[in-house]
Input
Amino acid sequence: MWTFGVAAALLLAAAALAFVALRQNANLFYTPETLAENGVPAAGKEVKVGGWVEPGSLTYPGDGSEMVFSIIDNSPASITVSFTGIAPDLFREGQGVVAIGTFDADGRFTARQVLAKHDENYQPRELRPLGAGPDQNAS
Amino acid sequence: MIELGHLAAFLALAASLAQGVLGLTGARALAGRAALVAFAVMVLSFLTLVVAFARSDFSVALVANNSHTLKPMLYKIAGAWGNHEGSMALWCLVTMGFGAAGALWMRTGRETFEARALGVQGWLATGALGYLLFASSPYLRLDPAPLQGAGLNPILQDPALAFHPPMLYLGYVGYSFVFALAAAGLMEARIDRVWAKEARRWSLAAFIPLTLGIALGSYWAYYELGWGGWWFWDPVENASLMPWLLGAALLHSVAVTEKRGSFAAWTALLAVLAFLFSIMGAFLVRSGVLTSVHAFAVDPRRGLLLLGGLIAYGGFALGLFALRAPKLEGGKPWTILSREGALVVNNVVLVVAALTVLLGTLFPLIAEAAGRTISVGEPYFRLTFVPMLAALLAILPVVQAWSWGKADLSTLWKWAAGGVGLVVIFLLLGVGLWDIPLGAAFGLALAFWLIFGALWELRRRAVTLARVFRLPLRVWGMTLAHIGLGVFILGAVVETTQRYEATLALPAGGSGTVAGWHVTLHDVRAIEGPNWYADKADLTARKGSARAEMAPTKRYYPAARMPTTETAIHKTGTGDLYVALGDRRDVDGETRWVFRVYFNPLIDLVYLGVLLMGLGALFSVLPRRRKP
Output
């Protein structure tokens, strides 16, 4: 009896904890199109955004450690992403990327991490519905 | 050559089938012989595969798709299991290896029971081998043979990763034999102390390589991915953590069954679940339902077959459990405030922690089915998994001194005072003096609490200090494992909360300062390796009188058309200075190279702690010392 009581109490506590943690910490994924539809999420909440790096949009505004680029999809919308760090190995303009980070109040996205295609066969899961990107014929 | 291997695999299939049938009919000696034959021919079969890789025989499709003549020999050989088909062949080999080991080294004196365990193991081997031969055969030829292979996924060309899969599989598949023992014990409704003594040895035999395999994978991710961290809560990492947590719960539960005869049904259930979670790990990783670097064979049909196997094994074992668990005998009586009660808490928390990880890992899939794309990252695990385990570990030093049946609580107030005192000291030091987060201060207190508690328990058991070295090896094993936990937490807390990271964009001759280290870039040169070419940066890092030459490199593998990051790590006494070379950027007409520089304090303690846990498990499985 004791065993079941202890187990049930712990299980209940864990379930509550997991529920709260999931509600607060599951990262929603946005493409430029869904972002335009749903509006920018609360500033400071961690989310994922994904799409293709817009050709010609990549700039280095500072000493070169920060990169700023736009991501686009099949809609007219775009998201401006700022990232300080090493670009993923296969990061190129026109290539599909997923960025994890937060929006600020102005709708600008600061990425904590940027993921690109890992090799020739691997595409980030979130980008599969987007289909081939603009550079697929170029390279 | 490879046809010989193919034929041998069919012979192994026949032998495993014979082992399965003979074992379940109770023929211990014959089933044992079949297990040895199956293992021997499977070794032969696997060797032909390894030889095909070593000789770069591109007429074998698997070699052509996954190897290259210019690869160093170690990676040619490791390439044999660095792909889906080869890794499944390894899985089969290890399954039969455990069958053969069981045939040789089971010592229960119960002939029918041992025969049945071998029988179940035979069926597990048959299933795995059937999957290998009919759904993912590594033995297929390619005609015409290409002149050159496509190369191994270059991020796998690494010493830690050459040995990571075999270690991990020894662990995963090791639980297949624990599963077989549980099934055989349930068949005769006898999960008692003799059973537990046998099952405990095999649980340890699986736990040790699983622990080391996870550590190797984590160490690889640390220095190869260039992200500075050692655990990313990636689905693939979680897939190995879940069986580990269940395996840890099993070790504690089976010890109770061995000593007291209690927890019989629960121990059998855990033994079954540990293996089911191992297969589930393989399913999650291999089926491509979760993307990761490991999903090298994204084939829904294979995923379905693995899922089918999981359901078949799970249905069989859990059905057997439901039928027989009510008939199992209970052990000696106990109350909640006893060693047994404490171990119930241990088991419930470890299992719930594993379920929490499972939920976090599968939740994105569930949400996707509901039409939403989300991901679950580190914050979720930090809020659920971490406090659960912290609470469990906080009571560990107190309750491990409790006796079986009913604990003596007269010293409880001393423990409580000691624990509260330690927390207060670390809160004052941490928040007041070191300026670290509150959680980190608690974490440090917990780490020292565990290390101190383990040593105290050792001394308590020895009564006098002089007799410490005459304690049984398994007491030493427990002590080492618990000290290892403390050391691990110390490293993990300090590394996670005090890690320092910065990005530098340097031209040749430029410099920057990170965590007190003054980093100067001399130049970046192009170099060539056997099957790659690379950009290699020459850096000097200085801090006071300390000085380190560092050469972070970015390799490019033309065969796979893929770059990799080779980080430079300088070990100081207090942590790793860690530099990864990034991309080349043209800023205002000047060429700059981007570097990610980290200082990872006490990171070695993370791995030392895990190694101590593995070593502790090793001490626990070693035979008893002879009395002098």
Q: What stands out?
A: Chain B touches chain A through 55 residues (CB under 8 Å).
